[in-house]
Design brief:
Number of domains: 1
Protein name: DUF2141 domain-containing protein
Number of helices: 2
Shape: globular
Radius of gyration: 22 Å
Order of helices and strands: HEEEEEEHEE
CATH topology: Immunoglobulin-like
CATH architecture: Sandwich
Largest sheet: 5 strands, antiparallel
Strand content: 25-35%
InterPro entries: DUF2141
Structural class: alpha+beta
C-alpha cells in the first residue's frame, strides 16, 4: 500500500520532469551579427561559411552549418544569421569581387581576393585552426567583428 507521502513524491517527480522539459524547449535561438570591416571596394559579393565543429573548417563549405553569398550594398558589411543554438562556432568570410562564388587564388594558392576569420587570428602560413577562430554564441544576439585581409595587393 502506498502512503500519501510516496504518492506526493511520485507526482512531484513527474511535474518537475515536465518543468525541466519545458525549460529546455523554451531556450530561444540566437542571432549572430557579423560586422565585416576593411573591404576595399563594394564590387561583388561577401561570402561566409559558419562551422559548429572543426571538421572541414575553413575550406570545405559542404561541411559548414551554413554557407551563403550576398551582394555588397554598403560598407562596412553587416550580415545576420538567425536560428543558432547556444554553442561554439567559427566563421570564414571572403570578398568575392568577381562574383564567381569562390575564393580565387594564384598558382601557389595565395588568395587574390580578401578574406577573414572570426577572432581575426594572425595569418602566417595558412588558414587558422577552428580553435583559433572559435567564439561562443549565447543570448538573444551575439556580434562578431571580422577585419578583411588582402594579400599581394599593389
Amino acid at each position: 500500500m502506498k502512503t500519501p507521502g510516496k504518492i506526493f513524491l511520485a507526482i512531484a517527480s513527474i511535474f518537475s520532469s515536465l518543468t525541466l522539459i519545458q525549460t529546455v524547449r523554451a531556450v530561444p535561438a540566437s542571432q549572430l551579427n557579423l560586422e565585416i570591416e576593411g573591404i576595399t571596394n563594394p564590387r561583388g559579393n561577401i561570402c561566409f561559411t559558419i562551422f559548429s565543429r572543426s571538421d572541414g573548417f575553413p575550406r570545405d563549405g559542404t561541411k559548414a552549418l551554413k554557407a551563403e553569398c550576398s551582394p555588397i550594398e554598403n560598407l562596412p558589411v553587416t550580415l545576420s544569421i538567425d536560428g543558432l543554438n547556444a554553442g561554439n562556432y567559427a566563421v570564414a568570410v571572403f570578398h568575392d569581387e568577381n562574383a564567381d562564388g569562390q575564393l580565387n587564388t594564384n598558382a601557389v594558392g595565395i588568395p587574390q581576393e580578401g578574406f577573414g576569420f572570426s577572432n581575426n587570428p594572425p595569418i602566417l602560413t595558412g588558414a587558422p585552426k577552428f580553435s583559433e577562430a572559435t567564439f561562443f554564441v549565447a543570448g538573444q544576439t551575439t556580434t562578431v567583428r571580422i577585419t578583411m585581409k588582402y594579400l599581394l595587393r599593389i
